[in-house]
Amino acid sequence: MRGMERVGFPMSIVEFQRRFADEQACLEYLAASRWPQGFTCPACGGRKAWVLARRHLRECAAGGRQTSGTVLDHTHTPLTLWFWAAYLAATHTPGISAVQLQRQLGIRRYETAWYLRHKLRRAMIAPERGLLTGEVEADEAFAGGRNPARRGGRDRTGTVLAAVAAEVRGTGSGRVRRQALPSADRPTLPGFAPATIAPAAVVHTGGWSGYGYLAGAGYDHRPVNQHYRLPGRTLILPRAHRAIPGLKTWIAGTHHGTSAKHLQAYLDEFTFRHNRRHTPMAAFQTLLGLGTLHGPSTYRHITT
Q1: Structural domains for the chain
Q2: Separation CA 117–CA 269 (nearest Å)
Q3: How far apart are CA 268 and CA 258, in angstroms?
C-alpha cells in the first residue's frame, strides 16, 4: 500500500463538506493520518492490506491482523457523522454540547449525540503527553455545580475541586493541565504534581499548607502570599487564575453544568482546547487519529 498525501485542513464548512462527502473519503483520510508512508501492520510489519470498509478496519494480507486504531473503532455510526462531530468539537470556539450536536447534525437520539461527544473526549488525552516544565503556576478551585448550602472557603458541598497547573511562558501561558481532586488536603494534592509537572520545575503556588509537600518531592517550591505581588506581575498566579474563570464560564455556559462523575472528562476537553487553540488541524487529527493509543471506548465504559 503506497503512501497517501494528507489533505490540508478545511478552512470552511463548505470545504469540509466537499472533502468528506462520503465514507470512502473519510476512510482515506484516516489511513493517510495513521500511515502517512503507507500501511504497516503492527504485528508483522506487512505493507499490504485489504480494506474492510463496513467495519472501518484494514486486514493485513500477510498475517490477517485487523487494525483500526482510531477513536472510531467498534462504532456503527457513519464515519461522515463522526467527522462532522470531530470538526465541530475541534473548531467551534466555545465548544459544543451534546444537545447542540444533536440539533446541528440531525441526530435522532440524544443518547447517540452524548456518546459521540464523550467518545471524542476520551481521545483528547494522549497517554504519552509530556509533563509541564520550567516555571509552573498551580492552584485549585471548585467547579462543576452550585449549591446554596456551601459555606464558602474550601467547603465543597455540591461541587468538585479542580487542580490547575499552567506553564509560565513570558507574559502568557504555555500548556495547561487540570485534574479533579477529592479535596485540597495533604493526602490528595501530592498525586497532582508528579502526574503533571516535571521534577525540578519551579512551582509557584499560594500559601495553602496543602502544597507543603512540593519541596520534599524534588520541586523548587515558591509559595506566594496572597497579599504580596511578585515583581513585574499584576496578579498573584495570573496564569493559573486566568484558567479558572474560563473553565467555570465554559461549563456553565456551553454545558449548563456537569456532574462530579464526568467532571474530569470536561476538564480534559477544556485543557485540550486550550493547548491546541492555535492548531485546529492538529486538534482534528488528534480526535480522529491519535486514538490509536486508547483502548476502545464502549457505551458501558463511559457510563459506568
Answers
A1: 13-122+282-303 (no CATH), 135-260 (3.30.420.10)
A2: 10
A3: 13
